[in-house]
Amino acid sequence: MDRLLTPDEREHHRRMLTLVLDRWEDQAHTWENGALLPEEVVTWTAEQGLLGAPLPASVGGGGWRAIEAGLLYEALGRVSISLASLVNVHGMMAQTVARWGTPWQRENVMPALGAGKRVAAICMTEPHAGSDLSEITTTLAERGDDLVLNGTKVYITFGQRADDLLVFAQRAGRSEACLVSRDAPGVTVTPMGDMLGLRAAGLARIDFEDCVIAPEAVVGKPDFAVPVLVPTALEHGRHAVAWMALGMLEACFEECARFVRTRRTFGSPLLDHGQIQTLVTRMGADLEAARHLCVAASRAMQDKAPETMRSVLLAKYFVCRVAQEHTASAVQLLASSGISERSVTARAYRDSKVLNIIEGTEQILERTLAPLLVGAAGAVR
Predict the structure, then answer these.
(1) Which parts of the chain are beta strand (E)?
(2) What is the pLDDT of residue 269?
């Protein structure tokens, strides 16, 4: 990784690794047993300035560049995808409001989000609406001078803990989004447990029943939510998820490297066996490619380059795909050690499948990437 970074970026990366690993490296299993990050961990992320780090300084955030934020997500991903997801979903919601919110929202909502005093979540998914957000049935309807929100959202990351929600809905046939406090009358939060992965990410079902929304809580213009707000949130989320998956894969590769250096089978070091060499080589090569794609996506984002969308999509698509493949290989390689619930590889094996679904499934990204890649090939001459 170091040779892809400037000296200042390398130093930032070391600080992030030290900060996160020294404090939490061995805690993920305990968190997953509790099915939610402990409150002290949430408080720690806020006190360290991590929740607001990627947000613009103009709204009270840290003003970190994309590469700095990416290196943070990589460090968090080495420890726990649930921990990384806390920072990610907060950023997805807050970045969207910071960019498209009204002056009132930037003045009254963003300072607490930028400082990490309130935790944010984003409510898109419904029981019958996932990748296709045109199927959203949550409604926002006029009632006198107010609006009334009705509907159900599911699999909301940190929905159990979030203070402020950005909720996507339909209003008179147009897509809109609004800000809702979890304490508002008509909001019911129900934990969703027994998940394959993200076991400490506090997933929740959130029901809105005649929840009164003030007009100033609507974010963006009419029919703005799906075509404008969603891409803003997803670009932030896909960039973060790619780096999170990279950190997870780094941790798995390091565990595998330690194992093959010390383990002997059939009278020889494990690394001397050809089948093991194949697993390790493929994992290491894809890990190196993943580093390049993540750095390229971050540089495109901070340069506001025309290829930003393609670079972010490629990073998310490739890194999550190979992470799913190689975490399975890591479990196979480590055998009995790899299937222990306390092992890095077992947790990564579960989480990698989730990362390959959230913020756009592998198949959805292929639909988007294919024409972009073909178009770029035609532009070479």
Answers:
(1) 120-123, 139-143, 146-156, 164-171, 174-181, 187-191, 204-213, 218-219, 264-265, 268-269
(2) 79
